[in-house]
Design brief:
Elements: E1 7-11, H1 19-33, E2 38-44, H2 55-67, H3 71-81, H4 89-101, E3 104-106, H5 108-117, E4 120-123, E5 150-152, H6 164-175, E6 181-182, H7 185-195, E7 200-201, H8 205-208, H9 211-218, E8 227-231, H10 238-251, E9 254-258, E10 270-271, H11 276-285, E11 288-291, H12 294-302, E12 307-309, H13 321-330, H14 351-380
Parallel strand pairs: 1-2, 1-4, 2-3, 4-5, 6-7, 8-9, 8-11, 9-10, 11-12
Amino acid sequence: MILYMKKVFLTTVYSGFNYGSSLQAFAGKQIINKTGYDCILVKLKSLVKGRDIRLKKLFYIFFRSFVLSRKNLLKTYEASYNKTFVDGTEAKFYDFTVSYLKPVETSWNVLKKMAKESIACFSGSDQIWNSSTLYVDPLYYLRFAPKDKRIALSPSFGRDFISDYNKSKMSKWIGEYSYLSVREDSGVKLIEEMTGRRAIHLLDPTLILNRSEWIELLGIREKKGNYILAYFLDPPSSKAKVELKSLKTYLDCDIIAIPYIFDNMDFCDRTLSAGPKEFVELILNARVVCTDSFHGTAFSINMHTPFFVFEREYGSANKQSERILSVLRKVNMLDRYQTDSSTTHIEILDFDRIENVLNSERAKVYTYVKNSLAEIRNHEK
């Protein structure tokens, strides 16, 4: 039998062909490993390769969508599975998962045994605590682990409110963590309202690994290209398209779009297939990044690449802008959001100042992780 006394387990979202999910999982593992422990990313068996689809999860989503009359949320789930990727994108995600994430698939019962023998179990980051989800997933609340071994690593609610139909369960499950942190400043308030406890506000793990670490760990090249990178989770808004056109004329370069093929691609010159590794490299070497994504924003900040953020076209889904606004407030860069005239704001940014802010936040994360693990070890003694 494998001994897990020097192992630490991590549960988080990393599937679904999403750059942020894959890269925050990788960053979370690296952060924990740097404290001297061996971090193992664990998953439960999925019915579909590359997705987190389980029978119980499917049942709850469909059942609650009708009981709660939340058919609009069901459409949101469906939309996320129906996006068309640039050819070759999925294969690069598979390669990244195998080469860098190396998840261990297990059953719930085996996971409970493993957790008892481990040092601790982490959950986070990403929207594992999505406040309006139709399925509050016990995996991401560490329900398989002893209470005193549960550590939250900057999970996100995705929004600045908790849906009424999730408040009771989420309040109970979050309240039973021994160590609480959260990714947005609004999340600190939500946890205090639900549990009466004060969670520490930590940055997303992708910002904790610095620029040099990302380049080294992924083995990517730093060679500036003559292109604008367009990374939009949904078709870009009319405002975003206007700004893209303006930037293209001003910089006299092509617009490259990743990773989706939308019905109308008139906002770009060409598309590229890109997995998580290629995503970081493309941001690193772009002249400018235009995005509606949290992680598009985070990696632009971290790679010291000029960027502009636009409101995402959510359709019937609840807006999730608070995640982006929170990190922009932290680094004092709210002027990059919904800019009216991007060409007048493309000046060189003060990334030295930003690094000073990030280094302070990075220290907070490592202190939190080390202290949590040390307390658990001391209690065991």
